[in-house]
Automatic annotation (TrEMBL):
GO terms for biological process: transmembrane transport. It is found in: Cell membrane; Membrane. This is ABC transporter permease subunit. Belongs to the binding-protein-dependent transport system permease family. The keyword Transmembrane applies. Keywords: Membrane, Transmembrane, Transmembrane helix, Transport. The keyword tRNA-binding does not apply.
């Protein structure tokens, strides 16, 4: 009777057996796939060292960091840096400039690789298709410094080729590089020229997987090329478009620090300054480490919210999403 009363309950015994079974299964799988796991190890170490470990640095946003007394000796100020940022008049200017560039990017840049991929997919001669692909891929490998230099040489009022043409037609020269009105169109145009061709790679790969029998059936039914694209091609790559759109939302507030920094100046800065350049100016040039970290953390949190929101909406609309 004593042994029976001290014996383990059946449910606990069953749970323990299940736990041991799961552990043994996991160990068996690790042993079986040990070489594959070894191949993943460098990537895991990279993300651990360069992506996850530096995350503790966001604590600077909640401190009044002083380099000469160190991280642990600096005063903990809580959300004071965030409150200071939200009360600063520059906050609304940064939000407006960043959101407008992000909206222009989504409206003009994001659909451009899709349209270009659809046009390339219609080329039947493989030689011309490969030639055009090679030509439009080249700008991706050009440094943004060179792109900014080319823009300056073309658009400057001091002998720029475009401005000379405008002057010959109108008798006036346009202030492309210093005008607030021309800054955003210039940024979007540079992005289109540099990255539009490279962005077609994924969409061309998705188009290669479209079932050709669907096009043959559509031809039999009398559908023209536009109808085939609308009813067959676009639905076939819709999943790819949605995944890339969700990932793009995560970078909605990333406006290309290097590009904006190179193209901004004292005359267009009211519309050119975005979160990235503001963080650089405060953190690197002025040494406001805690305040600039708070600004960067705020931008990162908004990006995470946008990713989760867009993924949720995609799932509600019946699509797979990314997680």
């Amino acid at each position: 009777m004593i042994k029976a009363s001290q014996s383990e309950p059946p449910l606990a015994s069953q749970a323990r057996a299940t736990k041991y079974s799961t552990l043994s299964t996991l160990l068996a799988r690790i042993k079986k796939d040990k070489y594959l796991l070894l191949l993943c190890l460098p990537g895991l170490v990279y993300f651990l060292i360069f992506k996850y470990l530096p995350m503790w640095g966001v604590l600077l946003a909640f401190k009044n960091y002083q380099p000469f007394i160190g991280f642990f000796g600096s005063e903990w100020v809580g959300f004071d840096n965030f409150r200071q940022f939200f009360q600063d008049p520059v906050f609304f200017r940064l939000v407006r400039n960043t959101l407008l560039l992000g909206l222009y990017d989504m409206v003009f840049f994001f659909p451009a690789p899709i349209i270009l991929a659809l046009l390339l997919n219609e080329i039947r001669k493989s030689f011309y298709k490969r030639l055009i692909q090679s030509l439009i891929y080249v700008p991706h490998f050009i440094s943004m410094v060179i792109v900014a230099s080319i823009s300056y040489l073309l658009l400057t009022t001091e002998g720029g080729a475009v401005n000379e043409m405008v002057y010959g037609l109108t008798g006036e020269k346009m202030e492309f590089l210093t005008s607030e009105e021309w800054f955003r169109p210039l940024i979007i145009t540079q992005s289109l020229w540099k990255e539009m061709g490279w962005g077609t790679i994924i969409f061309l790969a998705a188009l290669a997987g479209v079932d050709q029998e669907q096009y043959e059936a559509a031809i039999v039914d009398g559908a023209n090329r536009f109808r085939q694209v609308w009813h067959i091609t676009l639905p076939a790559i819709r999943g790819t478009i949605i995944v890339l759109l969700i990932l793009r939302m995560g970078n909605f507030l990333d406006r290309g620090f290097e590009q904006v920094l190179l193209m901004s100046n004292a005359l267009n800065r009211p519309v050119a300054e975005v979160f990235d350049t503001y963080v650089y100016t405060l953190g690197i040039t002025q040494g406001a480490f805690s305040y600039s970290t708070a600004v960067g953390l705020f931008k990162a949190i908004i990006g995470i919210i946008l990713v989760f929101t867009s993924n949720y909406l995609a799932k509600r609309a019946g699509h797979s999403g990314i997680f």
